[in-house]
Amino acid sequence: MKLYTNRYAPSPRRVRMYAAEKGIALELVEVDIAARAHQAPEFLAINPLGELPVLVREDGSTLTESLAICRWLEEQHPEPDLFGRDALERAEVNRWIDRLMFRLYVPTTHVFRHTHAFWAGRVTQLPAWGELEREAVRAEYAALDAALAGRPFVAGARFTMADIVAYTSVDFGKPSGLRVGAEQPALRRWYEAVGGRPSARA
Known about the structure:
Structural class: alpha+beta
Order of helices and strands: EHEHEEHHHHH
CATH topology of the largest domain: Glutathione S-transferase Yfyf (Class Pi), Chain A, domain 2
Shape: globular
Number of strands: 4
Strand content: 5-15%
């Protein structure tokens, strides 16, 4: 299978990290977002939305959206499971994924889009909105720190897709100056532990 990806973007990184944890081999096709390759006609023929990642399956059909791709792969490769072993654990993992996507990942992207020089001239930037979202991200860091004070991983006692979503979102804060601080020891301990996994370098 072929994955259209970008080494800097968090959404395709979620899929690469997931595949690395599962031992799933994917052929990676790098798409240069800075050069606007994702807006080229050749890529728009693959995904008319011009977004990454895109998984091209063996039959030539495509899947988009990182979580949909990972959930499909989970059906094909159920072990080791990363979305939960039973109904209750799956609900807990998915609860955290939903929360992290809306309360951490989306605000982090808004900070980047509205305050970083990369987007100047590419989009209409609203720096004041970006700074408000920066505070929302910091509040979620504090909430994550409190949750992780009582357990090793986001959704409980073991590593799951919730940790992948959290890690790639926190790491994506770096270009915008968002960092886990000393005042968040549990979050820092978790962040360093997940960053030490081989999949974090995928």
